[in-house]
Amino acid sequence: MMKTLLPAAVLAGALTAAPVAFATNTDTTAMEGTYLLVQPNESQRLLALNPGGSVSLVSQGQQVRGYTSGLGSWEMTGPDSARAAIIDFNDPARESDSNGASKIVYELNFAGENNGRFESVTGSFTGQAFAKGQNPLADDAKPSRRFANQFDGTRLSVN
């Protein structure tokens, strides 16, 4: 009887502990916050990773290059990594075949955890600009222009 109950008890214990272990691995609290991203010879950006998976982006180059702030979603991809997808809009007054929306995907790698929060981030982004009226989320959307860059970032904290 004992030999029959032992495997069942071990399985029950493992299944009971699994959700707890998984929950700690999906906790995004250490990543959440606002980061100043610095690109080589480019504009600086503020990237805010908000609880619940929303993200917002403001760039120093917006007015000069003619695009809006961006909004989107983010998710944790590993214990110290995340991916964010952001949409912004390009100035329709500019004569360009890419004056509609842009979709930008950020790959983020965090480091320097201190008191349960990451203090720095590095990574890259790739983007696609689309013609006015084109849906950047449609599977058949063809970008007018592509762009990419790398960055280093630091958490903005209240001191």
> Can you count the helices?
2
Return the domain count. Answer: 1
Q: How would a textbook summarize the main sheet?
A: 8 strands, antiparallel, barrel
Widest sheet, order of strands: 1-2-3-4-5-6-7-8
N-to-C span: 62 Å
Principal-axes shape call: globular
Helix residue percentage: 10-25%
CATH arch. level architecture: Beta Barrel
Number of strands: 8
Round the Cα radius of gyration to an integer and report it: 21 Å
Just give the CATH class.
Answer: Mainly Beta
Query: What structural category do the secondary elements indicate?
Result: alpha+beta
Average residue pLDDT:
84
Detailed description of the structure:
The chain is an alpha+beta fold. The chain has one domain (32-155): Lipocalin (Beta Barrel), CATH 2.40.128. The protein has 2 helices and 8 strands; from the N terminus they run αβββαβββββ. It has helices at residues 2-25, 62-65; strands at 33-38, 44-49, 54-59, 70-78, 81-89, 101-114, 117-129, 145-155. An 8-stranded antiparallel β-barrel has the order 1-2-3-4-5-6-7-8. The termini are far apart. The model is unreliable at 6-12 and 14-24 (pLDDT under 50).
